[in-house]
TrEMBL record:
It is found in: Membrane. It comes from Rhypophila decipiens. One of its GO terms (cellular component) is plasma membrane. CDD domains: 7tm_YRO2_fungal-like. The chain crosses the membrane at residues 29-49, 61-85, 105-123, 130-150, 156-172, 193-211, 223-245. This is Opsin.
């Protein structure tokens, strides 16, 4: 039983640095988030065996998002994938240097587009609009990442650029996409899911401004904030999608995939989709 440890010694193996750094309690919390992502991944994978042929699209999308979260949170819990960055704000109280975990941003680079893809396919918008929304999310995240690594108050310019991309993304997902979803009779579910996603997304600028941006809260409190947001955004949303999808008509939504390709709007027989 020597492989079992009574305590978390990750910070002994991978020591933190700086004035604001990850604590042992913070590492424990991040390992708990890692476990939830792992459970979500395995649960979604198991549920693919019960889903009908051609109707596993949302399972696959959120499996990838969960996998990215699992790896990223494991790295952060182990006090890996970070840089020590000098701070420009609130230095007298919080200190001059802070651990900035780039694994957090790598996680968002995968999970945000996965969510956008799921919402886009559900709404019925064009693939070009989906790609546009995904690129907006990348600009948003890159703006935050560059801002976090900027050692002066010029960081707020990069934050503003990222936030502009966020606003454009919000407009498309709550306005244009909702109108398209209404045409195929999925408006209620889409509005509920997109509204939930955008509400959670609105919390990210606040969390970033208090942590990697404004240096107002420590590394551990920031991870509690971001961890709750990420859990609400990926595991909770994943199960909501999968359970709601059981009542959706994939043929009518034109999102069913078969051995013949994506099911068209026209009538056809697809034997492998029979229950």
């Amino acid at each position: 039983m020597s492989i079992l440890h009574v305590r978390n010694d990750a910070l002994d193996t991978n020591p933190p640095a700086g004035d604001q750094y990850l604590s042992t309690n913070g590492s424990n919390w991040l390992y708990a988030v890692t476990a939830i992502y792992g459970f979500t991944l395995l649960a979604l994978f198991a549920m693919t065996f019960k889903a009908r042929a051609g109707e596993r699209f949302f399972h696959y999308v959120f499996i990838i998002a969960s996998f990215a979260g699992l790896i990223s949170y494991y790295a952060m819990a182990s006090d890996l994938a970070w840089s020590l960055i000098s701070q420009a704000n609130n230095v007298s109280i919080m200190g001059a240097t802070r651990q900035i975990f780039f694994a957090k941003y790598i996680n968002w680079v995968v999970t945000f587009p996965a969510i956008i893809l799921a919402l886009g396919v559900l709404s019925g918008i064009s693939w070009t609009t989906i790609l546009y929304n995904i690129c907006l999310s990348w600009v948003w995240i890159i703006g935050y990442l560059v801002a976090a690594y900027t050692r002066t108050n010029y960081k707020w310019g990069f934050f503003a650029f990222g936030q502009l991309a966020h606003i454009l993304l919000l407009v498309v997902t709550l306005s244009h996409s909702r109108h398209v979803a209404n045409r195929v009779g999925i408006s209620r579910d889409y509005t509920m899911l997109a509204g939930y996603v955008n509400f959670i997304w609105l919390m990210y600028p606040i969390a970033w401004g208090l942590s990697d941006g404004g240096n107002r809260i420590g590394v551990t409190p920031s991870f509690i904030f971001f961890g709750i947001l990420d859990l609400l955004l990926v595991p909770v949303l994943a199960f909501a999608f999968v359970f709601l999808a059981r009542k959706w008509d994939y043929n009518r939504l034109n999102i069913a995939f078969t051995q013949y390709g994506r099911v068209p709007h026209s009538h056809g027989t697809f034997p492998e989709k029979d229950t």
